[in-house]
Write a structure and sequence with these properties.
Elements (H helix, E strand, L loop, with lengths): L61 H9 L9 H11 L4 H14 L16 E2 L1 H15 L4 H5 L2 E2 L2 H7 L5 E4 L4 E5 L5 E7 H7 L16 H12 L1 H8 L2 E4 L2 E5 L6 E4 L18 H39 L5 H23 L5 E3 L1 E3 L4 E3 L1 E2 L2 E2 L1 E3 L14 H7 L5 H8 L4 E5 L4 H8 L4 H4 E7 L9 E3 L4 E2 L3 E8 L5 E6 L6 E6 H7 E8 L16 E2 L2 E2 L11 E4 L2 E4 L32
Parallel strand pairs: 2-3
Antiparallel strand pairs: 1-21, 3-4, 4-5, 6-7, 7-8, 9-14, 10-11, 12-13, 15-22, 16-19, 16-22, 17-18, 19-20, 20-21, 23-24, 25-26
Helix pairs in contact: 3-4, 8-9, 10-11, 10-12
Length: 588
């Protein structure tokens, strides 16, 4: 089968992967037998403008912490190292102790899921946005105010709301139904939803507690977490929703359709283990991305096939007589393939998917002499053991994916990929920029460790191999650089690692300019050249090797019998059987 260059879907360094089995205990809901005691120190007063110290944590010993957890709703999900780490923090008397104790209190009150304390890394700390939301909830309760009224305050005018709100925050204008979001320092925009719908989709605190489950979509979950973490980028998440009474539709700015959810909830036929745990809004976005991927595959299949047929018919009109029979046969085969596809898609008893391939660097649509290939979902070789029952889950998780495409569908364009093997200094220079975390969002992919599963690399910091992460540079007072890493297994927590360790654990980083949202800027594509032993530096004098793919492995074109070739990276000459010239492979 041949691979067409127009059907290559990614070039970023976020590797596709199957979700490891380690951290998969599902959330449970139990009635608390005991409440977490309120912190003893005075809480900050809502809207007072007076900044005071955060609450002091209640003092615990390892024994009293264990006894406390035994009677808590989080008891059943806190096991092993997670439990030990939480108890250690509870006993520390630090800021993180206050954070986790307030989090446990919200769990006991039913405001957060018990599973949000999972994946508490030994060197971890709470997501700063989650901590702010928890503070807000406590401040509101302490002042006797309605939490949602503090979360989405009502103001007299749009200008007043814009002046008082922070970027990424929402507010309601008196006598108007739809709420506003402060998009940036210059503009607040009206969202197509009211206050009640917003709170349902993105409740305080819970909006920052996303957890990937067993499907291989770490690239998607980490990107959703990255978008929520950045106030400017968060606007793109909110603007993907449109309210229609009690229902909502999700539409990506650069997507392939819109998807309606009755009562703003996931349909009951969704398999829980294939859906992330978190706020309703983020869960709907994950589901909608899968549905959008189905529409994308259908759109691209028809587009590519029709373009091929048109091109071949134009070639036929100018071709010499000797070549016409071959072209006519090819056109006939392509038209029949397209007709077969349309017929199969129309059959309500069949679930059809477009076949894809993965060479560890990229994902392509599979081809043979008659064009793109399709099959029934149950017969696709990437649907091992009939794991996926829905095409949406299959496209989203069977081969993983790429965070650049997620960002592109949301409407971002300014994107850059870095190969950390050769461009570490450039990455460091960029990460040291003032206000980097305000104007850019960053994701990264860890090096493979023992194959295509997420094996532990630096477990104390939540670093696992072959996995996607949200990244944030942290520059110290003396210019020292650390990297804050958030594992999508639970975006409630993150851990800081030294930059040299970052280079040891990660082999790719991707940066997106959040100010590119809605501007349709082109993606900055940076091809990576490959030598005989793998990637070579851009300024290397080593001659690049031409590669093509057979049996899903990179192979030197000079060492393989052309008769055995099944997949060829297509260039203009790719269809010439004996003289295949292969484009330099781009690293995914």
């Amino acid at each position: 089968m041949q691979v067409n260059k127009v059907s290559a879907v990614a070039f970023t360094g976020i590797k596709n992967t199957q979700k490891a089995e380690k951290k998969q205990t599902q959330a449970v809901s139990t009635n608390p037998m005991q409440k977490v005691p309120m912190p003893s120190a005075q809480l900050m007063q809502v809207m007072s403008g007076v900044k005071v110290s955060r609450p002091e944590p209640t003092k615990y010993t390892p024994e009293t912490a264990e006894k406390f957890l035994e009677n808590h709703p989080a008891n059943k999900v806190l096991k092993g190292e997670d439990r030990d780490n939480v108890k250690k923090v509870m006993c520390s008397g630090t800021k993180e102790a206050a954070n986790v104790q307030m989090q446990l209190s919200l769990i006991a009150d039913g405001d957060l899921e018990p599973s949000t304390v999972k994946c508490y890394w030994a060197t971890g700390k709470m997501n700063k946005n989650l901590a702010k939301d928890i503070d807000m909830v406590y401040e509101a309760k302490k002042a006797g105010k309605n939490v949602n009224d503090v979360y989405v305050p009502t103001v007299k005018s749009k200008s007043e709301g814009h002046k008082s709100a922070k970027v990424g925050d929402v507010f309601k204008v008196d006598k108007e139904d739809k709420i506003y979001v402060k998009a940036n320092d210059k503009e607040s925009r009206q969202l197509n939803m009211d206050k009640d719908m917003f709170v349902k989709l993105f409740p305080p605190a819970k909006r920052f507690t996303t957890q990937q489950r067993s499907i291989g979509d770490c690239y998607l979950v980490s990107t959703l977490g990255t978008l929520m973490n950045n106030p400017k980028a968060r606007v793109a998440v909110y603007e993907a929703f449109n309210q229609d009474g009690k229902d909502v539709t999700v539409k990506f700015k650069n997507g392939f359709g819109e998807y309606k959810y009755k009562n703003a909830e996931l349909p009951k036929d969704r398999v829980e283990k294939y859906s992330l745990a978190g706020s309703t809004g983020i869960r709907l976005l994950e589901d909608a991305y899968g549905l959008d991927s189905v529409n994308k595959a259908d759109t691209m299949f028809k587009k590519i096939m029709n373009e091929r047929i048109d091109a071949k018919e134009k070639e036929l009109a100018k071709a010499p007589m000797a070549k016409k029979p071959e072209l006519m046969e090819s056109i006939k085969g392509h038209k029949q393939r397209l007709a077969d596809y349309n017929k199969a898609k129309a059959d309500p008893n069949r679930t059809i998917v477009v076949c894809r391939d993965d060479n560890y660097y990229n994902i392509f649509y599979e081809e043979d002499k008659n064009g793109l290939v399709f099959t029934d979902l149950k017969k696709d070789p990437d649907n091992k053991e009939d794991k996926f029952q829905r095409a949406a889950d299959f496209y989203r998780g069977s081969l993983g994916g790429y965070n650049f495409e997620v960002l592109q569908r949301f409407g971002f364009g300014g994107f850059r990929q870095w190969n950390l093997n050769f461009e570490a200094d450039k990455v460091k220079d960029m990460m040291m920029k003032p206000n980097f975390n305000e104007d850019y969002i960053m994701t990264g992919g860890t090096r493979a460790s023992g194959g295509r599963t997420e094996n532990p690399v630096a477990e104390a910091a939540g670093v696992y191999g072959f996995h996607a992460y949200t990244l944030e540079p942290q520059v110290g007072k003396n210019g020292e650089l650390k990297v804050r890493c958030t594992n999508p297994w639970n975006t409630s927590y993150n851990a800081d690692i030294d930059y040299d360790k970052f280079l040891e654990y990660y082999d790719s980083a991707s940066v997106c300019d959040v100010n590119s949202y809605g501007k349709n800027l082109p993606l900055e594509e940076q091809p990576v050249k490959y030598g005989k032993k793998g990637p070579i530096a851009p300024d290397s004098k080593e001659e690049p090797v031409t590669w093509y793919i057979t049996n899903k492995k990179p192979v030197d074109v000079k060492k393989v019998n052309m008769k055995n070739v099944k997949t060829v990276a297509e260039t203009k000459e790719a269809n010439e059987a004996k003289n295949v010239k292969v484009a330099e492979t781009k690293k995914a």
